[in-house]
Amino acid sequence: MIFIENVFASEAEISQEATSSAGEGILSSLGVNAPLFAFQLLNFAIVFVILWFLILKPLSKKLTERQKMIDDSIENSKKIDEILKQGEKKYQDRIDVAKAEANAILERAKIESDFIAEEAKNKTKGDMEVLVAQAKARISSEKDNMIAGLKNETAGLVVTALQQILGEKIDANKDKKIISDALSKLDYEKK
Amino acid sequence: MHIPTMAPDVLFTIGPLPITNTVINTWIAIVICLIFGIIISRKISLRPGKFQNAFEFFLETLLGFFDQVTGDRKKTMKFLPLVGSVFFFILLSNWLGLLPGTGSITYQNKMLLRPANTDLNLVFGMTLVALVTSHIWGLITVGFFTYVGKFVQIRQLFLSFRKGPLAIFTAIIELFVGLLEIISELAKVLSLSFRLFGNIFAGEILITVMSSLVAFIVPTPFMFLEILVGLIQAGVFAILTLVYLTIATTKPHAVEEH
Predict the structure, then answer these.
(1) Share of chain A above pLDDT 90, in %
(2) Torsion (CA) B95, B101, B104, B110 in degrees, nearest 10
(3) End-to-end CA distance of chain B
(4) B48–A40: do the CB atoms touch at under 8 Å?
(5) Three-state secondary structure along chain B?
(6) Does ipTM surpass 0.90 in this model?
(7) Which residues of A touch B59 (CB under 8 A)?
(8) Which of A113, A119, A164, B235 has its CB surrounded by the most CB atoms within 10 Å?
(9) Other beta carbons less than 10 A from residue A163's beta carbon
(10) Is A59–B18 a contact, with Cβ atoms under 8 angstroms apart?
(11) Which of B251, B250, B239, B258 is nearest to B86 (CA)?
(12) CB B125 to CB A44 under 8 A?
């Protein structure tokens, strides 16, 4: 019995050893072995450290920094644009207010100028009327004077002419009569 | 013609550590990363030079792709350390494998240089880091019980006993779905690592065979193809890592509804 158990136990051990040696055989044919695996793992760890700490980390950090800078610049440009728009709006508002004020000033100036012009016109008209009246009065008086002078001259001429024609001296009464006749004739002719 | 084997060749050992030809390529990648890193960290400024500009272009393009997966720039930046490192390292390693000398320079009848991603140790390592990180992040973000509840839905089963047979049936199905989730998590390790390994290894063999048949001109189109494959595989690995991280840090619908 003990012998049979030993035989079975040794068979099991043999099959286990065969399986493990087959597994090891496959792995060794593929070149897989523990020390080399550990060594390559270490090599990869070194590569990882170099790539991450010397290349990827600084580069990604710079990329992030640059991206942040670009984002900040875009944000700033948006703010500046907003401020510019607000400034333009304020400028436009002030221009509108100034325009309104200017229009009001112009309106007032126009009213004032119209008023001043009307006043000046009225004053000028009054002055002109005064001047015309004065001129008319002067012309009238000059005319009267001239008529009177003309009358006298005419009378003198008439008398002189008559004296020449009649060759005689007329007395004062006769003289007056002749003069008045001549004058009345002159008035008639004038009319 | 020396067809590369699946296992990388051990060139020498430092103590217990075997130094393989893929490790040499990994070291070259580390040195290049270090040089680029020193240049960038010293010359970095808000007004980028040509060098910084080129890197920023790559990074911004990558961030754009990542944003499409995460849908949020904050999440993208949170996952960038791991996903970005994975992407750039895989890309650099893949492209380094196309440099002249890789596969052709020998040391003690062994290839001195091999593309780093033809080493399953490295690929498994990166995959495990990606997946373990996604699970840790998921646990932290969603909460322990909610996250574990995705895989082990026993609580629903207990609650279903009060609701009736239909609820019990649904809870049992959900319990099995949870178990399937665990299996899919394990499958992720294999699919993610073998996809990258297979593509790069196949590319290496393809170029080796083509170069052995005709040394000039004929391998050129295949090398251009491999440049593309290198980029695509780096992208696929990184995007899948990001997808796993995003899914792990998103609360399940049932939790969101409550």
Answers:
(1) 36
(2) -90
(3) 64
(4) no
(5) CCCCCCCCCEEEEECCEEEEHHHHHHHHHHHHHHHHHHHHHHHCCCCCCHHHHHHHHHHHHHHHHHHHHHCCHHHHHHHHHHHHHHHHHHHHHHHHCCCCCCCCCEECCEECCCCHHHCHHHHHHHHHHHHHHHHHHHHHHHCHHHHHHHHCCHHHHHHHHHHCHHHHHHHHHHHHHHHHHHHHHHHHHHHHHHHHHHHHHHHHHHHHHHHHHCCCCCHHHHHHHHHHHHHHHHHHHHHHHHHHHHHHCCCCHHHHHC
(6) no
(7) 56, 59-60, 63
(8) B235
(9) 13
(10) no
(11) B239
(12) yes
- What confidence tens digit (pLDDT) does each residue in B1-49 have? 677 888 888 888 888 888 888 999 999 999 999 999 999 988 888 888 8
pLDDT at B44: 87
Residue B54's region, left for phi above 0, alpha for psi from -120 to 50, else beta, is: alpha
Give the tokens for residue B215.
């040394």
B156-184 average pLDDT score: 85
Q: According to the 3-state scheme, what is the secondary structure of A12-29?
A: HHHHHHHHHHHHHHHHHH
As a whole number, the mean pLDDT across chain A is 82
Q: With left for phi above 0 and alpha for psi between -120 and 50, is residue A167 left, alpha or beta?
A: left
Q: pLDDT, tens digit, for every residue of A138-187?
A: 888 888 888 888 888 888 887 777 777 776 556 678 778 877 887 787 77
Tokens for A71? 């984002």
- Residue type for B59, please? L
Q: Which residue of B has its CA nearest to A57?
A: B81
pLDDT digits (tens, 9 = 90+) for B240-250: 999 999 999 98
Per CB-CB distance under 8 Å, the chain A contacts of B85 are 47-48, 51-52, 56
Tokens read off for B183:
């299996």
Res B141 pLDDT > 80: yes
Smallest CA–CA distance from B77 into chain A, residue: A60
Given a cut of 50, whether residue B119 has pLDDT beyond it is yes
Cβ neighbors of B175 (< 8 A, separation 6 or more) are: B152, B153, B154, B156, B157
**Angle at the Cα of B217 (from B215 to B218), degrees rounded to 5?**
75
